[in-house]
Design goal:
With about 300 residues, the protein is an alpha/beta fold. Helix content is about 35%, strand content about 15%. It is built from 11 helices and 9 strands. An 8-stranded mixed barrel has the order 1-2-3-4-5-6-7-8. The radius of gyration is 19 Å and the shape is globular. Mean pLDDT is about 80; it is low at about 1-5, about 10-35 and about 50-65.
Length: about 300
C-alpha cells in the first residue's frame, strides 16, 4: 500500500472509494487511440487538458476536478539476495510534501476515479523523469476501476509519452481495502496479468480477503501487513504465522515481501523464514520526487549480525 513505511498505511492513496458513485472521465468515451506517440499525447490531453499534466483536470465535470496538486514520493523495495533495488513504490504526496492521509482527506467520493487515474499518470511520469530503471509499483483502488480495458488506457498513454517500459509496472491492491465486488478485483488482476504487468496484494493478513483472494488469484507478490512484521523477533506467534504464509506462497509461486521493516532484528528473523524482498525505514524513508539509495554499509551490518 502506500508504502510500507512505518506508520504510513499509505500505499493506497485512495481508500474508502465508492465504486458505484464514480463518474467516468473522458477516457471512457475515447476509442483506443493506438500505440504511436502522437495518439498517446492526444489521449492524455483529452483527459488532463492542453498541458498533459495531472493538475488541474480539464475534461471532466466540474465536481470531478481535483483542487490540489498531486506529487509522488518513492520508497525502495530491496532484494536481499542481490542487495539491489527490486522496485520503487510510488506514494502520493501533496504540493508541499503533505502525507497521504492529508491528501486523501481532500478527495471527495465523486473524485476517486479522477484521483486514481491522476496518481497513476503522475507516478509514471515522475519515475521516468527521475530516470528510474527498476520496477515501479503503483497502488490502485479496484473500486475506482469500472472496466479494466478502458481504465488502463491512460496508464498506457502515460508510459508511452514518458518512454517508461510497461513491463516494469507492478499494480498492487491492499488486502485491507473493503472490495465491493471480489470477482471484479480478480477480473482486473487477470486483465493486468495478461497485459504483462506484475501484480501484488498489499497488507496481506490485515483483512478482508486473505486466503480467499489467494484461492481465486495468485499475484506475483504478497506483501505482509506490517503488523505481522513489527516485533517479529520477539513474537513466536508472529513467526509461526509468517512461516505459514511463506510456505503457502511458495506453493503458489508467489514471492513474499516484508514491508514496514524497522530493525535489524526484524530483518534477520524474516530472512531466516525465507523472505527475500524487503521495504521499510530500516533501508530508506520515502523521498519526494527522488529515488532513495541504500548505504552499502547497511548490508554489511545486516550480514555481520
Amino acid at each position: 500500500m502506500a508504502g510500507g513505511a512505518a506508520g504510513e498505511r499509505s500505499a493506497d492513496p485512495r481508500r474508502g472509494a465508492n465504486h458505484g458513485r464514480f463518474k467516468p472521465c473522458a477516457c471512457r468515451q475515447v476509442q483506443h487511440a493506438g500505440s504511436d506517440l502522437e495518439a498517446a499525447r492526444m489521449f492524455l490531453t483529452r483527459f488532463f487538458g492542453a498541458g498533459t499534466t495531472p493538475n488541474p483536470c480539464a475534461s471532466c465535470q466540474d465536481d470531478d476536478r481535483l483542487e490540489f496538486e498531486v506529487r509522488m514520493a518513492f520508497q525502495p523495495i530491496l532484494d536481499a539476495t542481490t542487495r539491489e533495488v527490486y522496485a520503487y513504490e510510488a506514494l502520493v504526496r501533496g504540493a508541499n510534501g503533505e502525507g497521504a492521509a492529508e491528501v486523501i482527506a481532500g478527495v471527495r467520493p465523486e473524485q476517486m476515479y479522477r484521483f486514481d487515474q491522476t496518481c497513476r499518470v503522475q507516478a509514471i511520469s515522475t519515475a521516468a523523469r527521475l530516470g528510474m530503471g527498476a520496477r515501479l509499483s503503483i497502488n490502485f483502488n479496484p473500486n475506482a476501476v469500472y472496466e479494466p480495458a478502458t481504465c488502463i488506457r491512460l496508464t498506457l498513454a502515460a508510459a508511452k509519452m514518458s518512454g517508461f517500459d510497461t513491463g516494469r509496472l507492478i499494480f498492487e491492491v491492499t488486502e485491507a481495502e473493503r472490495v465491493r465486488d471480489g470477482s471484479h478485483l480478480v477480473k482486473i488482476f487477470r486483465d493486468y496479468q495478461q497485459r504483462g504487468f506484475m501484480t501484488a496484494i498489499d497488507d496481506f493478513g490485515a483483512g478482508y480477503a486473505g486466503l480467499n483472494l489467494l484461492a481465486e488469484f495468485q499475484p506475483d507478490l504478497v506483501k505482509l501487513d506490517m503488523a505481522l512484521v513489527r516485533g517479529i523477533d520477539q513474537s513466536a506467534v508472529r513467526r509461526t504465522i509468517v512461516a505459514g504464509i511463506v510456505a503457502i506462497c511458495a506453493g503458489l509461486r508467489c514471492r513474499v515481501l516484508a514491508e514496514g521493516v524497522e530493525t535489524q532484528a526484524e530483518y534477520r528473523v524474516l530472512r531466516t523464514l525465507g523472505i527475500e524482498l524487503f521495504q521499510g525505514y530500516l533501508f530508506a524513508r520515502p523521498q519526494l520526487e527522488a529515488l532513495p539509495v541504500v548505504d552499502a554499509a547497511l548490508w554489511e551490518a545486516l550480514e555481520a549480525g
